[in-house]
Sequence to fold (603 residues):
Amino acid sequence: MAGRRRRLSAGWRLPSGGGCALLLCCAAVAWSGATVAGAAELPGFSVENPAPGVYVHYGSQAEMTPANVGDVANLGFVVGTRCVAVIDTGGTYAVGRALRQAIRRVATVPVCYVINTHVHPDHIFGNAAFADDHPEFIGHARLADAMRSRGPNYLNALRRDLGDAAQSSAIVLPTRAVAAIEELDLGGRVLTLRAWPAAHTDTDLTIFDSASRTLWLGDLVFVGHVPVLDGNLRGYLAALDQVRAMRGDLAIPGHGRALAWPDAVVPEQRYLSRLLADVRAAIKAGHTLTETLAIVGPGPDPWLLTDQFHRRNVTAAYAELEWDE
Amino acid sequence: MTRRDFCMVLALAFAASGTARGQDAGPADSAVWKKVHASVFAGAAIEAGDRVVALETPKRAEDAAIVPLAIRAQFPQTRDRYIEKIWLIIDNNPSPIAAVFQFTLESGRADIETRVRIEEYTYVRAVALTNDGKLYMAANYVKAAGGCSAPAGKDALAAKANLGKMRLRVGETLASGQPALAQLMVSHPNDSGLAMDQVTRSYATPHFVRRVEVRYDGRLVMNADVDFSISENPNFRFYFVPNGAGELNARVIDNQDLEFTAQTKLEGARLGAASTLR
Fold:
């Protein structure tokens, strides 16, 4: 047993050059007794290949549960002649490992970049599965701080809600920060990374692949799954105006499928605009937060998961907008 | 609060979190509560709150960072009978004593509405001390938010930029001698500093409001000793009794000894400020 643990931790050593790709202390406790072999399996994990070198895994439209092993967000990777860039890693170590296995099936070049589109757990907890590749972990300039302050809570909640399926999941901090716009050369194709002001979260990052003209939009764009506000509502709406003007042949939202671009973003703009107007009106009318929660509904569009997220959105919108008057 | 105190309450909270998930254990059985009952209340008898204090909370914390709650006194503050103090306790937060509110006859009503962070499945309690020295408790169980909600702030840059901005508002029409609602908003990150920087192995600098004091014409209306269990941008709704023209003053002090103040003048017949409160 002791030998097994030693081997495990040796394999888990993260790149030390940058000096900041380290696991949070709670994470270390979490996997000290776990084995990688014990992590949950994802037999049905599949990736689509909509354009040369572009691979997408569409997660299920659900909250993270033991049954779905935290596989609820869209993930993927882009393969160049030099190396592979991973874009988001899933809600658990097990999802990250399944993604890594999918990469090994189609690519012979190494993984050199693991990019997180924002701080939410369904997009980052698979990072640890790529530790052996010694990639650069890349995120928004505020991602490291956000991971530090939220990481312990996210890990506790993951263990609480997913139990064994959370095994080996850990917070892995970025080794490289994007403050505005940066390019990554994968060989034969260039990814353009863009950091946004606070919108869905205050760590949103989008990626454009020049060769396939693919837009990876993270959770700036929700399709089907009700949008989630965890940053700044007016910033979110402003970002969507710009996102909608971005041209691409393929758009990959953080949740759901964008069948037509940019039309896919219209319902989200409608939901958030309405949220803004309704909450603002409730505040003007003198309603408290609790009263406003009872008044402001999700609107006419058939969103998924409104029970889980709509009231939360109203709460966040209220706390932001009450300072306006 | 010192770093050592932090560690102690953290240990308490974690010790309890194992049993906190299932609600089978009643509010009296929580390990944190047993400690608090012994240390803060010296094990004194505490009666059910029904006729003294009510606690309104959501059943589930929709957003772990902003959980609205209301504590409502079941009678007005009169010379014969009034509430002196209310403790707001969140068992499984890193620092369980979220606030200690002090009220006076000038409060009119010992009501308070605020927003708190809820980290885990937990009991939330309001313990009221009445002027006859008796204690009463109302307790609700609150389920934690979903896994992608964290008690951290939403927009770190905005929080820094707006530090110390304040709003103090009262209703448009106030009646002299009758309890009137007021609202105090403070722009402040109210940060626990509990997140550890893995590079330096040091903690972030805690920065949170520790005291809120509201006076009407110099007389204390409401005092709150608070900490980072209160949400970012602390927000309080409370009562005071206006009496003709006067001035409502709020003073806020944080743990770095920064002091912020706000005033609202109540003038003659039309007592009040720009905004309406209901």
In short: The CA atoms of residues 74 and 87 of chain A lie 9 Å apart. Chain A touches chain B through 53 residues (CB under 8 Å). Residues 143-162 of chain A form the longest helix (20 residues). Residues 1-37 of chain A have pLDDT under 50 and may be disordered.
